[in-house]
Amino acid sequence: MHRINQAEDAFPFAERACDLRRGLLGNEIEFFASLSLADILATFNGEIDKADAYKKEAESVAALIDDPEFVLRLRLGDKILQRDVLDEVFLSEIIDFGDAGILSAALLYQSSADNMSIEGALESLDKARILIEKQHDKRLLDSVYFAIAEKYRCEGMISEAFANYKKSLSCNQHLNASVQNCVVMLFESERWLDAEEFIKARISLVGELPNICFVYGRALYENKKYDLAYKYFLKSSSDVVDREFYISECLKYISDQELCAVGKREVTAPLSISAEEFYSALKDFAFSVSSDSRMHFWYFDKAADKYKWTKNPEELSKQMLITFLNGKFGKGMVEIVQEPRAGAGFIDIYVLLSGGLKVVIELKMCGNGYSSTYALSGESQIIHYQINKGTKLGYLVVLDSRSRDNGKHFKKLQTVDGHTIYTVAADMRPLVDKG
Asked: How far apart are CA 86 and CA 76, in angstroms?
């Protein structure tokens, strides 16, 4: 999860791993690894006190480990953290030790030294690449190709850099730094055909997210594919700088016949519903239900002296959402299909949006008998539905009644193996206004 940029979600699992390994004999190296990961994730999430505690515990565990490979890895890690130069003596020690994993990591780090020439850096990186490719564990390979690409980019060798950015992404398709730097490089060098091809491949992987739609539209515009660029600018977020400018520019070049082909509804905004606009509509739904309709989901159990969910609250929420979407967009802009079969399960709602997007929606309750684990299980269900329906876009709507942690631990946007999931939480705590 950390590898695919989900540090917040990964942290509880790292903490659990530490708890399970704490106190076990003969498990010190694995325990140290779990503590170190927990330290990294806590720091990334801004939980500094926890990070310090895990770091101190890791240091105390490391002091108990008498293993030559572990000690050498630790020494290399310390030098990397301190940005120390790897002198010839230490490099010779690593080479003599004979561990390909340690040596490849050292070569990768060495290539980033400020005093290293481009030839020396590339030679070091190529040695690391060869070593890693011979190993079963190739997790460093994406970083090696990314580092090679960066060296070429800084030297203005665009074709070589582009080839290695693509290689890094073939090893790890979620390496966002490689995606971002590659797109910036292609735009700055005005390699518009390469940019169009590259961004199109990303869209097939992660879906038509608003910002990706804009940069894809820009590449299409520069390639004089104005009608297609126009469509993608419309799918981008309205908050994107220069969006309206490029839409106006596209219209200058689109003939009346081409506009007719695009469709009369695509000449006047909103011409299509983007993923971000649909997410915004679901937030409006969550606010509306929370503000105006939440008590429709509760009844007061006098015997238990507390509020309980009404019968079939998920079905009630589904019917409310269908009514809301039809009212929000109009039946001509959305086509809603209720609970079609998708493999072993049923989709709560399957929606065809104006503009071509297909989305699945899963509704889940949380709190008062429904655990947060149950609510989050909707994410895996959405992916299952997406696979069966041939779409990459899904939305999880959580009706959250927890008195503590209300609305927490739900991630607005995440991408898992190319499947994009937006999450919206509605405050459903059974509060009665006594004022």
From this structure: 9
Q: How far is the CA of 328 from the CAs of 43, 164, 170, 323, in angstroms?
A: 42, 46, 41, 9
Q: How does pLDDT run along the chain (435 residues), one tens digit per residue?
A: 445 455 577 788 888 889 888 878 778 888 888 988 898 888 888 889 998 999 899 988 888 888 888 888 888 888 877 777 777 777 778 767 777 667 767 776 777 666 677 888 888 788 778 877 877 666 678 888 888 898 899 889 999 999 999 998 988 887 888 899 999 999 999 999 999 999 999 988 878 888 899 999 999 999 999 999 988 998 888 778 888 889 888 888 886 566 656 654 444 444 578 888 899 999 999 999 988 888 889 888 888 888 888 888 888 898 899 888 888 887 668 878 765 444 434 567 888 888 778 888 999 888 888 887 777 777 888 888 888 777 888 999 999 988 887 877 778 888 887 788 899 999 998 864 444
Type of residue at 420? T
Q: Say if residue 286 is in the same domain as residue 343.
A: yes
Q: State the Cα–Cα distance between residues 230 and 218, nearest whole angstrom.
A: 9
The CA–CA distances, whole Å, from 417 to 172, 211, 384, 414, 421 equal 10, 19, 12, 10, 11
Q: Is residue 71 part of a domain?
A: no
Integer Cα distance of 130 and 64 in angstroms:
34
A 10 A CB-CB count for 265 gives 14
**Does residue 24 lie within any of the structural domains?**
no
Q: Which of 241, 268, 295 is the last residue of a domain?
A: 268
Secondary structure (DSSP) of 273-328? --HHHHHHHHHHHHHHIIIIIGGGGEEEETTTTEEEEPSSHHHHHHHHHHHHHHHH
| Angle of CA points 224, 262, 418, to nearest 5° | 75
**Among 243, 268, 293, where does a domain finish?**
268
Model pTM?
0.50
Q: Strand 419-427 and strand 393-400: pairing?
A: parallel
- What's the domain range around 287? 275-427
Q: Are 227 and 258 in contact (CB under 8 A)?
A: yes
Query: What does each C-alpha distance from 411 to 314, 330, 388, 423 come to in angstroms?
Result: 21, 29, 24, 6
